[in-house]
Fold these 2 entries.
Entry 1:
Amino acid sequence: MRHEHRLQTPLCDLLGCDVPILSAGMGGVARSELVAAVAEAGGYGILGMVREAPEMIALEIDAVRARTNRHFAVNLIPAATDPALLDAQIGICIDLAVPAMCFFWDVVPTAVARAKNSGCLVLHQVGSLKAALEAEAAGADVLIAQGVEAGGHVHGTTGSIVLVEQVASATSLPVVASGGFATGASLVAALSLGAQGIQCGTAFLATTESFAHEYHKARVVAAMAEDTVFTDAFALNWPPHSPVRAIANSVTDKLGSRLMGHHPDELPREVIAADAGRSLLKYSTDSPLRSTTGSLEAMALFAGQSATMIETIPTAAERIAAIMAQAEETFSRLREL
């Protein structure tokens, strides 16, 4: 049963959620437990299935549905996925009738069209006005405008406040603000810019249901905004020129001021960790998961600048409740000005 809330926006009606809070489709981290918990709490969960085998995607979709009957999406990244694998990934999502797919990085019109033709809603995360207009032209239903403050892979160089207002003013599609949004005050700010909701990555990475390693969660809680770095040093497994935001560690510290300008073909292949029998390399885009062992400190500890606002590791439901309560408090404060 849906719960009416004062802060429901048209986006909520479109996606089938109660509150305008999306959990980002973080690869490895956003698995069924987190997605279902977010959905059950009234938010909108997105499974992070980049480069995962179709069999794994099917298992995770089934696991979400075993925990909740609420709507959710599956996040895929065409630019970072072998074309044959991408074809199979989209195929299994269609076969299992997922309500929506979320795409990121370069806009691939054929992928958007295939999802749309199957009856799926399409969310597309973008990092620039140009990409937003391309996604709209390709047939996307929702645009997620990601500012440079965001954690993980970042596909633009513009700050969230400017980008969100820019995209919301230039398109007729619902816009979701992403990058630096983790509190009720930031939700209100996003709505004032023309967005209809926010997407949170860092805030949901640091929850009990997240599949991130406890070490990663603890580093997020301890981090301030200035502890994050914007770098393309974690480049293995992704196309060249793909910067990320992560918490500074021994790898980035050794780079000094040379945080950018790294090409995957020029980086050494050094095994530093393992996960489910798979060797993980230094400079790879792999982040430490519950099942990871090895030198966790030297891995990509993805986090956005909003980490400065993260002080605890609650359940996803508690995180959503806190954001919504803060939003109500913010509205009340503004009315008194």
Entry 2:
Amino acid sequence: MEKVFKITEQNINQRLDMYIASLDLDLSRSMAQKMIENNQVLVNEKPVKTSYKTKLDDNIKIKIAEPKMAEIKAQEIPLDIIYEDNDIVVVNKPKGMVVHPGNGNPDGTLVNAVLNHCKGSLSGIGGEIRPGIVHRLDKDTSGLIIIAKNDKAHINLSKQIQDRKVKKIYTALVRGVIPEDTATIEMPIGRSKTDRKKMAVRKDGKEAITHIKVLKRYRNYTLVKVKIDTGRTHQIRVHMAEIGYPVVGDEVYSNGKNEFNVHGQMLHSTSLDFTHPVTGEEMHFEAPLPGYFKDIIDELDCGL
């Protein structure tokens, strides 16, 4: 896999290894250094030293080796399937389930479960680790996710997401009382410079647009509907924390403390609208709030 970047005025005179580490590629500085040394990084089609300083209009080509890991095994894990046909599966993912295998999560993932359910019939475009995965949800974000069962469906759905034709609506409980009824957050998001596991609002980040609508206000909390135009990693969590209303239970972008002792963000993918990748039919799906989420809303409705 190759990624190509062009140096703009914002990024000139940076060490190449630091520049690469700042990109949203899940690469540390040490990893970037090794890649430069192995000629996996070319500047204007030529290998350079790790200490190379970027110049305006430089073309940076990064060759990223496809991730390799042991063959993913199908596992009999219960799935809440909302819809299925020959081309797609729409699943209501539970909180706590990782979407695909990775470091620290070799199995027990949504991919393991779907492989078992579909008997191996999934799009291969996502590679060995992400077969069928068109978009992702964080481990502790519950709700609707689309799985592609063949490459045709995968390509079409990816294009719809890229063209912002897939409508994704989330429900979130956030800390604090939002005074506005509606708001749009437009803040670019990129990899945090201080913590590689986190994302952050950055001037040189990628465009990120989040729309929020207040559903109900409580004494110390607000229930909101969230629509995202872009699908940046941790987008809703980063944006809500940045404006001072972090998602309840989010242990990464807030202190995670809450009177309900819930762990992991109270964020649920409530509805999805998209065009069927093969038939062209307009599709709409909804997933009810999980039990624990509804229980907390009931508590708040009772005046907690």
